[in-house]
Queue: 3 jobs
Job 1
Amino acid sequence: MDFKIREERGFKYVEEGEGDVLLLLHGLFGALSNFKDLVSSFSDKYKVVLPLLPIFDLPLTKATLKGLKKHIQDFVAFKGYESVSVLGNSLGGHLTLMYALDNVSQVRSIILTGSSGLYEKSLGDTFPKRGNYEFIKERTAYTFYDPKMATQELVDEVFEIVNNRNKAIRVISVAKSAIRNNLADHLQELTMPALLIWGKDDRITPPFVGEQFEKLLPDAELHLLDQCGHAPMMERPAVFNDLLGKFLSRVYQKV
């Protein structure tokens, strides 16, 4: 499906469907296409909302997780959503947790997949080298179990970001703020239902990270997917959507 990107009051976002709100938060190098299958599968039962995080547009001093969290809070307030379930991949999972901690009464449930917040490796051990397309292709493929998932379109997107100085320094700023912001001591405050979907072959946030989240979150269930890396909703969409659908049905008590 083709996403219709709306622009209002400085916010860019996708909003499909009606009903209870499912808010999707993408990662540092994430794109709307990462959630293509999810949006098309759930917009008939829920209002699926995907705000574009202004990672590359924030002033450098605000290019942090706190700056992005404020953007999400301002967006939800602008839209007037009274209750949301929040799903985040990678850095988006980290933001999901931070948002939920500040808005406990507003968050109905959380869904984390390949989330940072406890531990992560950023595209391997190093930031991608500028100008080296093959290296960036290799590092992008590193995030998946199946390297073919690193399509030319996806690699080109990462290549453009890394070779744009203004974008690259903001990526580094946000990534550094994520490393500084470990949430282990606060997760017990999140008592809402939590669904954790992890790839068994995730090398960025390995399976032990999902297992640690399951231990620290009071009401969490963890599912580990075979032959799957850091983006389960992309590599294993059918299994991912089945698990998510059953979870949301329990949360919202839908048949």
Note: The chain has one domain: 6-120+182-251.
Job 2
Amino acid sequence: MPKKTKSKKDKNRNGVDDRLDWITNACAVILPFTTLDQLYIIYIEKKIEGVSAITWFLYGLLSIPLLIYSLKRKDLPMILLNGLWVLFDFAVWAGVVIFS
């Protein structure tokens, strides 16, 4: 019986196409930056209407265990993702507290 060969690259030998690894790693870094518009509105325009301090505080707080888990696993994309979420979530929360 012939050996099955993978048609797509899998340098990590994790059964995942390397292109998918690259896409998810890029998304892990880019995703938290979707919050920059919220930070701009709060810190530059000084508008906090409709922004819940408790929601953003809980987002930040609940991201901490995910960051710790990522650090324990030594998974760089997840460390970046969760670290940036902690930073940005608490920045939004702080802005709401400061300008309310």
Note: Residues 23 and 29 are 10 Å apart (CA to CA).
Job 3
Amino acid sequence: MVAKSVVKRFKEILGEANVLEEEVDRFNYAYDAAVLEPKTPALVLKPAHRDQLGELVKLCNENNLPITVRGAGTNLSGGTIPEREGVVLLTGGLNKILEINEEDMFAVVEPGVVTSKLAAEVANKGLFYPPDPGSQSVSTIAGNVAENAGGLRGLKYGVTKDYLMGLSFYDVDGNLVKTGSRTVKCVTGYNLTGLMAASEGTLGIFKEITLKLIPPPQTSKAMMAIYDSVEGATETVAAIIANKILPCTLEFLDNFTIRAVEDFAKVGLPLDAKALLLIEVDGHEGQVAEEFEKVQKICKDNGAAKLQVAKDEAEKNKIWEARRSALSALARLKPTLVLEDATVPRSKIPRMVKGIEELAKKHNLAIGTFGHAGDGNLHPTILCDKRNEKEWHTVEKMVEELFEIALDLGGTLSGEHGIGIAKSGFLANEIGQASIDYSRRMKLALDPNNILNPGKLIGD
């Protein structure tokens, strides 16, 4: 319960309509896209201007109120599930694109700007913002930074941190901290910009974010490679990378996912295919032609039964529509969907996919596997019913074994979804207890009352 005097002060800062007290309103922000128990916050705050953020976080700190920042709530690891005695800070109203600088190729945005909106505005200026998480039509830039979101183009173009030039954020005392620059090079002070990427809201509250833009590729070509075996598809992925070719996108779908997507989107996918690779090459026209020819040969050499090359932009968009609808298609099949993103070195993709198949058979669970095969980031998606306690226990066991396989292959617990609370208990298996203790000491120094998204990433 938040003291009445504190609630009154919040209302003075934000206006009464922007402080949500009713339980039905607060429950809307009790959960995110992870399969975890919801926690209804004590209060929900809706700032209308970024300059209000410092005063809000200072007030929370002075009153030991845990604060969880929430953009669109698409988080898949419990990173935006709040504390029951705390507040949720909504940044959706802070959605202005403050500047798109065409001369120096950067953009400055407020935290609540939707990713696809920024990409579209940048494209209208003849520039390119590559990060494209699957939730880009609703996810916000601050959330992308907090989770270091990736996407389909991550193989060639990198992830959010690779475009993060600088930002300003509020510390727990409400002081404005500035880091990074609008210049290409900047080594002024500690690399706080890098520290804030993937910090999951545990170190500060973003006010403004500066992002690098690049020229768009001149041309591109896309195709769908159809396989009679999963092994052929996964070996193709490893072979493309081994031949030092970096497609713009290199996506994998297994037969289970293919059938779900076709039933959902009706885009003409081959239902009898054991696996598909969706591949796009972009760049200068000559380079694209040369690399595309090489990729086609590699696909055929590794057993592709058929190659369908997109004839135009419409056909190319149809290919990516199929991939982007995978999660929605699978979500229709069972009451509960558990989407994982353990990631392995690209050469280990064949072994990872084989391991997933063996786990599915061992535990008799329905699993659709798709994802960014080109950068080793697969999304094995377990379909189940959490209300069935026995089945849910099996799912939890399988997830543990999935993590073990990824780590044994030299991989990581999460490629792009973050740790949150869903994976914090497994973190020591990857980075060791000393790394966690070091991180906790840093967190304690910066946030002594532990009010900034407590319990996330490094646990309590």
Note: The chain has two domains: 1-216, 219-408.
